[in-house]
Amino acid sequence: MPQFSSGGYDNPSAQSALVAKKLQEDFDVKAPWVVVYLEFRDGASSMESRTLAGDYIDRIKSIKGVDSVESFWDNNNPALLSKDGKIGTILVYPEERDFDFKNNVAIAIAQIKTPVGVEAYFTGVGPITNEINTTVKKDILKAELFAIPLSLVMTFFVFGSLVAAATPLVVSLFSIPLALAALWIFHFFTDLSIFGLNIITGLGLGLGIDYALLMVYRFREELSKTSSTEKAVRNTVNTAGRTVFYSGLTVALTMFSLSFFPLFFLQTFAWSGMAVVLLSVVGAVFLLPAVLMLLGDRIDKGFLIQSIAAPVSDRGLWFKISSFVMKRSIPVAFVTTLVLVILALPSKGIILGQPDERILPASNPVVKAGNITREGFDQSTRSNVELIIPVNVSFNDNVIGSLLSIPGVSYILDDKNLYGKNSMIVANQNASGYSGKDFKRITIYSNLEPTSEKAAILLSEV
Fold first, then answer.
1. Which of 208, 230, 329, 411 is 20–30 Å from 10 (CA)?
2. Is 302 helix (H, G, I), strand (E, B) or coil?
């Protein structure tokens, strides 16, 4: 079976992705996939620390798939040394292969045994993605191990007999395997996320219960009115079957809307969701009626709970609620809308941002590594904006002054100089790395959190 990816969170047509591609192709610049912090008790600059770090780096370089490695111990770059001098940084660049290949490189690096007295911390795209995916998979597994058995037990009390409680399995066992097969076929035409499998399992079980409940309850009502099982099944499909069809169609169309997002993580939700929903409808409208035809009044066999299995009264609670709503449709609609608006008011001031490793528990190793980044290193260049412009476009002092005046901007580096606050100008020691044949690059350094609202404002002003 083809492998499904654990990635799919990036938009390949976004400006950031296009700039990253241009930086790599024209300027041989790329972001590290793994960032390793090595902490030494006696400081990262001692001879012993340099020897230990060198051995550790050699083991990283020996891992299959590692393209290049840059570290504090290679060039004594002060930006790669912590403020207290105890932590040195290693930047690892894997070969440009697929997402999962690079993540496997990150896993292999994390498995390297550190020398005695040295602490290693891992961050970067690879370690963070691996930890998030691992945590999500474990949590989903826990949820499924709890929810699935509980759902199966609850179906007995909802359907009122063992035989009736088994009818959702008819729908689920039909829809889930076929939806998985459909996803397998889709994989040959587009990238898919591994989490599509969980969508199929969860929706398949849930819709199986939901649609079977509608069909079985209606079938019982029809059986109470006629002695003909065939007529009861026909009326069930004409009424509850129609409800299931339109309900499923609505859900499938809603899932289809996710396919318009450029992230294949969300597109997988669309394809897997549509497949399992439509197949659940087919199972409920075609296969389940055949089973009901075979069962007839034996639908109530197996520890029957009479109060649940009995036909619903035309004067019961739900009848009274529906009658109340229909007689006062406008006032009920107004009050309901008002309540929903009031409940939505707290979201008026919501600030949406990009997640980072801090969505994980504070005890997670990559969160600790992220805290080292934020607290242990100089923050004046903690994030940067890369600009790619044609070589013939002027980048004069007025433009530089305007960029430096933006709150949060620390420095600006172009193909000639490094510009700082208070008219500080220093020659760029890597000028050749900023000038290409047709384009040149400008780096705007900032001391802001990369995923913060202030950083988003800075980007828009740039």
1. 411
2. coil
